[in-house]
Amino acid sequence: MSVAWTQVALAGLWGGMVAVERKAFLQAMLSRPLVSATVMGLLLGDVSAGLYIGMLLELFYLGTANLGASLPENDTLSATGTAAAAAGMAVATGADSTQAIWSVAVLLFIPLGRLGRYGDRLLEGYMARLARVALASAEAGNLSRAVRQNLWGMWPHFVIYGAVCSGCVVLGGALGPLVGLLPLSLLRGLAWAFPAMASVAAVLAAQGSHARRAPLFAALGAAGVCLAILLALSREAA
Question: Is the model more confident about 17 or about 126?
Answer without folding.
Answer: 17
